[in-house]
Amino acid sequence: MSDSQVSGAQGPDTFQVAGKTYQSRLLIGTGKYRDFDETRAAIEMSGAEIVTVAIRRTNIGQNAGEPNLLDFISPDQYTILPNTAGCYTAADAVRTCKLARELLDGHDLVKLEVLGDQKTLYPQMRETLIAAEQLVADGFKVMVYTNDDPIAAKTLEDMGCVAVMPLGSLIGSGLGILNPHNIRIIIEEANVPIIVDAGVGTASDAALAMELGCEGVLMNSAIAHAGQPVLMASAMKKAIEAGREAFLAGRMPRKAYASASSPLDGVSKV
Question: 111 catalytic, yes or no?
């Protein structure tokens, strides 16, 4: 069995976003690291194939003379996922996606996030819906950050978003998945990949997301803010794989009382 895949009768366990197949279900951000060298090392250790980049905060060619992330993270090796972090209106988010498309030679896969305020970084859903509608109409393939409201998630899917990304908890909080029941409802109703985005703090949080049935997990702070980011990237890779295998295997039923590990049938009562 190779990394990030489970072989079986149906072949490797992969998932698709916007028509492209991926082996790794761990998506990773590029911000908050000490430098681009540490960013590259963590991404390599994680095994991630989709790497998200905040266009308003990271140079991918728009700032001549400054270090360019793409010199460290090659678009030939990774799917670069431009995101609209730092945008608080639909207009800003749409403008940022169009800039990314220009910088990346027509690249149309983007991660949309429109935030409500600087304290919580909670999604502003009215502006998110407006931006999603405009971007889809303009030919973008939109992966969208949203709250954990099943109705909002289904609405975004119906609008044409290629993946819906409900938060586990607030961005950068490390609180883990606070409402697993809503995440499960979102997954049950979805026909596009559901990827937990935000709030993961450690490996067990990532494993839980996968055990719930998510197609993947996107994280940045949990790795970049760890004491040893590269080591945490390794831990997250394993957690994603373990959680996915546990989901596919199917956990035992929860019981109110004990159940003997060995069968009791035929055991003498003397």
Answer: yes
